[in-house]
Amino acid sequence: MSGEIDIYGVFVPTLLVLMVVAFVLTGALRFALARLGFYRLVWHRSLFNLAVYIIALGGIVAIANACQP
Question: FRET pair for 17, CA 20 to 30 Å: which of 5, 7, 25, 31?
């Protein structure tokens, strides 16, 4: 994984881009879980959302590292 991504001349850390992707993915998952009523089974919604975000970020970082030549 390279250190930075060049977006129109602005160098952005790769981890920041991956964090934004994980945030969007987690937001879609939160919406789907709320529509299904899954949060009735969860004791602490905020901690659950944080854990899902960390898992999603770890998975995205692992995939990004595996795709590097």
Answer: 31
* pLDDT string in tens for the chain (69-residue length): 567 888 898 999 999 999 999 999 999 999 999 999 999 999 999 999 999 999 999 999 999 999 887
Give how many domains the chain has, as a whole number: 1
Distance of CA 28 to the CA centre of its chain: 10
Residue 37 DSSP SS3: coil
Q: Which residues pair with 60 in a beta bridge?
A: none
* pTM (2 d.p.): 0.87
Residue span of the structural domain in which 58 resides: 4-66
Token code pair at residue 47: 């901690």
Non-local (6+) Cβ contacts of 39 within 8 A are 33, 45, 48
